[in-house]
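Today's session is about reading a structure prediction critically. Students often jump straight to the picture, but the first step is always the sequence itself: look for stretches that repeat, for charged clusters, for runs of hydrophobic residues. Only then move on to the predicted structure, which in these notes is written as discrete structure tokens rather than atom positions. Here is the chain we will use throughout the hour.
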Amino acid sequence: MSLMNTNRTTNGAAAISVRAKDVAAQAIPVGKTAVQGVRQGVQGAKEWAAPRLEDAVLGAKEWAAPRLEDAVLGAREWAAPRLEVAADTVDTTVAPKVSSALRSTAAQVRPSGTKRTGIRRLLDWRLLLGVGAAVAAAGAGAAITMRRRYASATAEAKNATEASEDERGTQAGDSASDAVAGSEVNGRVTTPGT
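Below is the predicted structure for this chain, in token form.
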């Protein structure tokens, strides 16, 4: 009997499987149709809602704009006199106190004693610094001038030394020939042309 039960179970399962496949085959087109219907419904809802939403936003803007302007104007009208009162209060109470505090602080900060006059003013560090800078600049200028003079004097001396050596060499050769030409038997030398 167990073999018969097994066949029934297998046949029953096969039959259920065939029926499930048939139902699924019928359900798939129905599901596709339902999805398409939902898509069309969403598209229709969007098309219906878009102009109504735009009208609602435009209406809200038109309704809110004048009310907002009125609210801002009312706030400014309320704040202006209170600000003026606050300014007057500061002028009459706080400002004199601040001013007197600043004056007393200035008096405390101001150095006591006499002002610098005469030699003290001349010995101020800024003046001494300026004079030192001027003296340093003058010394540098003098050093540069002396260096240039030394260089030019050295160059002139070198040129003069080289020129005199050249002249001596030429004069020595000329004087030897002149001495031979202008000497006499007794040893006297005469200059040519005399």
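Discussion point for the tutorial: The two ends are 179 Å apart (CA to CA).
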